[in-house]
Design brief:
- This protein has helices at about 1-25, 45-50, 55-65, 95-105, 120-144, and strands at about 30-35, 75-80, 85-95, 110-115.
- It is of the alpha+beta class and about 140 residues long.
- Strand 2 and strand 3 form a beta hairpin.
- It has one domain (about 1-120): Alpha-Beta Complex (Conserved hypothetical protein from pyrococcus furiosus pfu- 392566-001, ParB domain), CATH 3.90.1530.10.
- Helices cover about 55% and strands about 20% of the residues.
- The protein has five helices and four strands; from the N terminus they run αβααββαβα.
- The protein has a four-stranded mixed beta sheet with strand order 1-4-2-3, covered by helices on one side.
């Protein structure tokens, strides 16, 4: 009984999410290869840290196997390309799901995502951060 109520709630929230995304013109729905999505940060260390904090990875794995991915991963389109010349995407929402998918699927398997273009502020912030890291490396070389 509890599982039935939970499943109805999840399906209902998924429908509401899809309606909201339909009317939000900033996002577009498509399928991309898993390799195009930037992997979640820190890999196995991240996984172990989340386990220590009490996150139930097995529950998420079982849910993805049993019900599939009800809510698409939200990503932002990057200005960079991978080694195959395919556009890369950065995760906005769905790090845990992508982490599980990286462990279970082939990198050429397609995953449904909702994506949007980067806005001017995000592009400027990315360029500023890259410049900062470059200057920091130069500074560290000069000190050593």
């Amino acid at each position: 009984m509890i599982n039935t109520i939970r499943n109805i709630f999840l399906m209902g929230s998924s429908i509401i999410y899809r309606i909201r995304m339909f009317f939000n013109i900033r996002y577009h729905s498509t399928y991309v290869k898993l390799r195009q999505i930037t992997p979640p940060p820190a890999g196995q260390e991240y996984y172990d840290t989340q386990v220590d904090l009490g996150y139930n990875w097995n529950k998420l794995k079982n849910s993805l196997k049993k019900m599939g991915m009800l809510t698409p991963i939200r990503v932002v389109q990057s200005n960079t390309f991978n080694e195959n010349g395919e556009r890369k995407f950065t995760i906005l929402d769905g790090n845990h799901r992508v982490f599980i998918l990286y462990k279970q699927l082939n990198l050429d398997d397609k995953v449904r995502v909702n994506y949007r273009q980067r806005n001017k502020g995000e592009i400027l912030a990315e360029k500023t951060l890259m410049l900062f890291h470059k200057k920091q490396k130069e500074y560290n070389k000069n000190i050593n």
